[in-house]
Amino acid sequence: MRILMLHNRYLERGGEDTSFQMEADLLRSNGCEVVTYEENNTRVKEIGKLRTAAGTIWSPYSYRRIRDILRKDHFDVMHVQNFFPLISPSAYYAAAKERVAVVQSLRNFRLMCLPGTLSRNGGVCEDCVGKAVPWPGVVHGCYRGSPVGSFAVASMVSINKLLGTWQDKVDAYIALTQFSRDKFVEAGLPDDKVHIKSNSIHPTPEVGPGGGGYGLFIGRLAPEKGVGTMLDAWKRLDMDIPLKIVGTGPLMSEVERRAEQDGNVEVLGWQEPSDVMELLGRAEYLVFPSEWYEGCPRVIIESLAKGTPVIAAQLGAAAEMIEDGRTGFMFRPGDDEDFAAAVTKAFSSAVDRPSMRTTVRQDFMNKYTANRNFDRFMEIYRAAIDRSRRQGGAQAAVNAVAASE
């Protein structure tokens, strides 16, 4: 199968960029021919903010370039990982002109929330879900705190909704979890086009030994990640349990200050990926206190792969991925007292952690291996191709009738 994979990279490398590269590699390793087309947000400065804002709705540049690529070579599928802001939905129309099936990954909630996070002020926000125009996000300046920038993103979402882009120009969407799928259908995407395919890890890492005696947080140090709740919970503990924190972010100075006051908390900052996996394999638990709807957190899948159970807020994807008492322990999001109780329970002598690690690893093998992910890719791609062909045939019939009249 020959695939054109599109992706707009962010200024700071994140999970979506990693997933794009991993999925392209996975497909290639299974015999698919993958051609990538990338944009990078470093080009925003070159283009200018006004032109970028206009191009977010429709980019003539992307339309021409992508259509040229599709015209010159045969492609079965055009898979869009992230089109925002420089590629734009014009890519779908280029594919339609060349009769190539379109698949869109739903790695964030941009089609129903301007910042793509379904969060505001550090907590969950669904004010714009289901609205024809996401005006609350404009009023609150949800996109980077800018009313102007928020208006531009809202225009992209609303104009393309009016044009029927989201309904008609995409043959298959890929949601990462059942929770995510339900949200997108609630927001108006066609139920029969939204498929579920989780993230995966390629290649499969070796299982970790555990026994490190510590909890481990890996992620951006930001309010929506539940960092403050985590530190408050650790302060409540009646037992000495080390917490290692890997990552950087806007709360770095506050986290370092709190760590100086709590001898059980150690801030490691940014670490090499190989070192992070080593820490994760030796940890007793991954600590995942996120207070917003994550897509399909790669760090949870990595933790399952290493055999490390997860202590997580019972919210969104995490609540779907972790089974309380079996592959980890859950607590109420934002509730430091319940969080502390979950940590205490997890580290108690009543828990058979070696046995739980075996269960966790098996859960990974059952759900998140590269082989299972590739099989799901092929199912979704074939469904998109079949739908595209049916629509093309129907349109050809309409054109023939119109020409005969």
How would you portray this structure in words?
The chain is an alpha/beta fold and 405 residues long. It has two domains: 2-107 and 164-201 and 372-404, Glycogen Phosphorylase B (Rossmann fold, 3-Layer(aba) Sandwich), CATH 3.40.50.2000; 215-367, 3-Layer(aba) Sandwich (Rossmann fold). 47% of the residues lie in helices and 16% in strands. It contains 17 helices and 14 strands. The strands form three sheets. It has a six-stranded parallel β-sheet, with helices on both faces. It has a six-stranded parallel β-sheet with strand order 11-10-9-12-13-14, sandwiched between helices. Strand 3, helix 5 and strand 4 (101-106) form a beta-alpha-beta unit. Helix 3 packs parallel to helix 7 (147-163), helix 10 (227-236) crosses helix 15 and helix 13 crosses helix 16 (353-367). The two termini are 39 Å apart.
